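Q: Got one fold?
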Amino acid sequence: MNGQKRSDITPGKQVDIVLKKDQRSGNLTTGTVKDILTNSPSHPHGIKVRLEDGQVGRVKKVY
């Protein structure tokens, strides 16, 4: 799953996100979803989430 649909993402799921500072390089950060920050049902750049460790980014892959 590519992380563009909010329905695919739930708290506790393992995901890869791209942080704001990594958007140019495309470096991915792996973590567990704590909060879903995007309210719309989908987003073309990925749903924005907060990980358990506090990092915020857009989901690129859902495991």
About this structure: DSSP finds no helices and four strands in the chain. The chain has one domain: 6-62. The longest strand covers residues 29-36.
